[in-house]
Predict the structure.
Amino acid sequence: MKRAFLGIVVALCACSAASAADMPAKAPRMEAAAVAPWSGFYVGLAGNWHDGTILDEGCVGLCEHNHRINKPYLSVNAGYDYQFANRVVLGVFGWIAVTPVKDETTLAPGVTVTGRTDFAGFIGGRVGYAFQNLLPYAFFGGEWVHGKVDIPVAPIPTNERSHTGYGTGVGLEYRFAPNWSVDGRYMFSYLGKQDYDFGGGVTTAAERANTFSIGLNYRFGAL
């Protein structure tokens, strides 16, 4: 009797195992794809609108005080971001202008002043908070601009100068694809004083500016 009972148990176990083997395997649960973190290097191109005011002191004779410069320019940029587990993003970035800012004004008939930058660059840091593929941030850094001013009829017709200063502002970057993002930002900048002398006395000039930028970045991904 005992042997018969054991035989029935063994048979039932065998049938259960066979039935389990015949059942289709349960499909693995699909996890939602996570948005790639912001950590990594990136490069990009931006269009910029420069709205500057020349802050001059000491000019005598033909002068245009607080001259405004409203001009566009293009820049290339590069940087690196690191995203922490708490979604805070720290980064360093910089840009270099690839087209000059040109300006011309007429002080009197036959007296024209032209200005042109031949180098402009910025390097700084930023801090932001990642909302998945949206990154608002603030930044601060240093700026360097070199250029020249020409007054052809002046005794000293050309002055070349370098100005250094700072820039600070806010931005918003949107990652619309794993490796691509669009970046919009506003920067307030101040370039320090330099002396200019065209033969009629020394004029000191600085610049205060607002710059609006929109750019496209290629991001190389997390490291």
Notes: Residues 39 and 49 are 29 Å apart (CA to CA). The chain has one domain: 40-219. Confidence is low (pLDDT under 50) at residues 1-21, 27-33. The domain at 40-219 is CATH 2.40.160.20 (Porin).
